Amino acid sequence: MRDLKYVGKGVSREDAVDKVSGAARYTHDLIVPGMLHAAIVRSPHASARIVSIETDAAEAVPGVRVILTGSGLCYQLGLYMQDKCILARDVVRYQGEAVVAVAADTLDIARAACRLIEVEYEPIDAVLDPQEAMKDGVHLVHPDLGLYEHMKGVFFPKAGTNIAHHQKIRKGDFDDAFANADVTLTAEFYNPPVQHAPMETHATIAQVLPGDRVELWTSSQSPYTVRHLMSVAFGLPHASIRVHVPYVGGGFGGKAGLGLEPLAYVLSKAADGRPVKVVATREEEFNTLPSRQGLHATIEIGCSNDGKIEALKSTYVWDAGAYADYGVNIGRAAAYSGAGPYSVPNCWIDSYVVYTNKIFGTAFRGFGHLEVLWGVERAIDQMARKLDMDPAEFRRLNLLKEGDETITGEAFTSGHGDPVGCLDAAAEAIGWGTPSARPSDASKVRGKGIAALHKAPAMPTYTSCAAVIKLDEDGGADVLISGVDYGQGTYTVLRQIAAEELRIPIERVHVTWDCDTAFSPYDWQTVASRFAYMGGNAVIEAAADCLRQIRETAGRALDVSPEKIVCEDAAAYAKGKPESRIPYEKLALGYTFPNGNSIGGPVIGHGRFIATGLTHLDPETGQGLPAQYWTYGAHAVEIEVDTETGEIELLKIATAIDAGKVLNPKLATGQVVGGVVQGLGSALWEGFQFDENGRFLNPSFTDYKIPTAKDLPRETEQIFLEAPQPDGPYGARGIAEHPMISVPSAIGNALYDALGIEFAELPLNVERVLLRILEERSGKG
Amino acid sequence: MLGDFEYVRAQTTADACRRLKEEGDRAVAYAGGTDLLVDIRNGVRAPKLLVDIKGIEALTRVRARNGTLLLGAAVMLNRVAEDASIRDRLPALSEAAVSIATYQLRNRATIGGNLCNASPASDSIPPLLIAGASLHIVGPEGERDVPLGEFCTGVKTTCLECGEIVTEIRIPTIEEGARTAFVKQQRIRGHDLAVVNLAGAYLPSDEAVRIAVGSCSPTPLLLEAIDGRSHDPAAIAEEAIRLADASASPISDVRASAEYRRAVLPVLIRRLVARLFDPQGGA
Amino acid sequence: MHTITFHVNGASQTVHVAATTTLLELLRDRLQLTGTKEGCGIGECGACTVLLDGAPVTSCLVLAVEVDGRSVETIEGEAKDGQLSALQQAFIDAGAVQCGFCTPGMIMSARGLLQRNPNPSDEEIVEAIAGNLCRCTGYEAVVDAIAAAARSSEAPRLLEDDDPAGGADA
Known about the structure:
The structure holds 3 protein chains of 3 kinds. Chain A has 18 helices and 29 strands.
């Protein structure tokens, strides 16, 4: 068994050189000659009829070229649910919604013009709370819901209501099992909406070309999805849409679907094909562009006296906001994960995705799992205490093991990974079982908490990825792939895999940075922690294809059969005869015999990977096989609480994830630390605030606080288990989203340990914590 | 950026005052710009002329005269944070300065700008209140000194008349053995505006404790002097809490509720007073 | 319009600017030095950090007219003669770069720090970069990178007088 040269090593990113020099160009930095700049007018109301739009004064501003309103744009957009228009048409459905767009010679001119535009609104009823929105007789955010195109058989909107989708899991007989359980518990939990807050806001340049073609440069996670959705929305053939994705300054799911591309396109079209650049301000990133949905969860668990979970029921009410395109898929995916990584023989889940008149949700790292596990992992802890069991022990007893089934009826095998191992590793890392030391400061208390996590890629059953590898004249190789590396480092991992498989020194192997739908092969979307897994497999196959071609040509050159050709160190030779060595550069473009005859040709390999064996979920029972693979993990934390101010400090957080195979320890560590800190944001500080009229109150970093370098845990530890994923590249499975998923629940559990108080709502900010402490104290006084 | 203003650099104080008076409402003094430029960007303010006062030499000095420390209004906050003569005299101000915004912003924002912005949550006002500071104001008609307590007249409003600028912050001698300290409650450890902020001083000569409370009223409040002869931090703190409770009127805003502010104010007062009486704490 | 002459990364530039042009706009739009990024426009995120006479500032809140006669350093000036600086290399080696959008501002804050404090403690590093928001890395690797750069054998480049002995070595 050959020792791995590159896979599994902490190879540095090649793209880091461009990034540390300022040479890396993001969509924000690009200029297309003749480019116009766009600005938008946003709605001040959560729900209103648009009575009139006065643009005369704006049109008169020198340098203004195009002004568009929704009434001229009758397109309905969406991947899973086509409920969104480009600019508000007839009504506005959330405060912050784009109503008018202006394209002008400069950004300042566009913005000045926007300030001169007068929109008259007639406020109408708004529905702001998703539970309210589910009741009869309330305002309908989408009265025409029944007429919208959507992915049939997968999503089930309820016409005449605010329910965009209802996902059901019905396994076993919950009612019976719960009624007969020895110990039961019911609890409610709440997550507010939060923002991805990538450092690069959304940006797109669109240029309509003659013949109704369009070229786009966009800060996106999914060039092919952009192309496809533009094709569907505007009735253009795929080949007439070209999408470039340069460097991307973070995505976290917010750039997974369509963002500003349709708006940029219609502006360019209206400007007779002049390129138009649309860049979101930070306020627009918060107030106009989508968020992570809020969630209200009710969880009921029934257990036997010896600690086995017999029944679990969850009702998830997702606050989808004004548009539910991605939201419906989150509602679906979270349902099939909605009981946590446990064996639950009787399970009943209702996951409702509900429209409200607020900023709409989209994919966000974790895809509903952080929100769901905030409820589940907290309820698990509560049940453990009710049973007088150690929370880690209770989890150990119930975590999925060989022979168990998931709640969709999937059999758990050792190839799934090692959830118990992760739990044990995280627990040990914080000294679980040993109470925290008493702080010397009397106002401080400490506590420990633990939480498990799981997630599978939430993706369609036909999700695929393709890769092309071409050898260079000098025997090096380039990998073409259109998954996007927006910071997670996957291109580096693919470079390592390509170099390993091709047997070429890594310095001569490169992953072509820019994605271009004109020549990069197809990839579905860079989301769901699936890119390293699928891209890795595609690259392995592409490399094998290259080697097949090399062996065939070398075989003919050396007059041996291809099976007898060995490839090593960028050269091919006949087995047992290393002196017959032909370096790749003499094969990369074909081989020329001494007499001049040439054979073979340019070596170009292709590989692909498609999701296999996945099925739709039964609409009534939710049974089926939605998961290509699962990744399991656990967080364990020790916290210190200042009981007089409500401040929480993390003394230590340990994260254990079963990666199957750590393809690059430096990158994997970076993913985990980054994800944990982003999770800390959700746990302690982040959440949208709205006034009673649905107006967004904190759309900037001044009042939407994300972690800074001063907010780090005192100590973090990252533990990787490696129970191989049987069909993963080198046994690897995805880990991108997982590091943030159970950070809030672990902290919530630790907070109970420290204070004896159950917190049901995020974020656990100083205000919430202190006021609860005082409330509990006065209740006892 | 979006805005419609001209820019001029004033060479002297008189030059600045003249221009500001001439243009009236249309002109504004421009120091660090960390509040002003954000307001212009957001369409909250729309001046036609920015009069840059940062280059006026007299406004950038830190010097002592007859025991009074004269702090130029255009001195940047990082310099306020690092200056040894300020730290010797009024460490509460040094602590407050370093808690403001970020290192980069403190290379632009000025002490005068922070005072003239007159935010109820200003971090520099409470320490200067307990020090009995006054502001030296120069206008086209002459000069005047205004005690800081009279300078802020309401939320983001001051007693500055058209054409006037603050040139110096005058901090009187603080006696040997005095201890001052600053405490601030934020939502996050990273840079943040105050939810509640306090400064305190213990003056051994008259055994008095002076406390100023910020973020709990339209302008930061200087509480009545508290008798410190007991040297009992708990008792002194309780008296301060009683006084603060009587005069503070915290509101609920996007940063915190009035309830939280009321809950954390006494905690911070106790911690502040403890620091004033702890030989290790304050200075 | 104002005519200003200033140094950018050691090279003299003369440009005409409106009073309303920010230093960030001057760098990115006029001089096409797009390494400096806009993350928020209100000084909160640090992505636009440059050195102005050696002091880190958020260029979105500096007017271009103010840099007349002064010197500005941006990320494009960090590497010399095609060689990455020790600081840049340390960022690469420590895994302190993910999406890279905060990186130029982060490096400029670090450069400012090392110029004024060649041997910073971890707390001092954190204080220096606390105004640079990053959503990807969780900051640990960034702090490690700056600490490693401080320890490296590269003499810190002093803004004013060069130490005749060749600079302090960590």
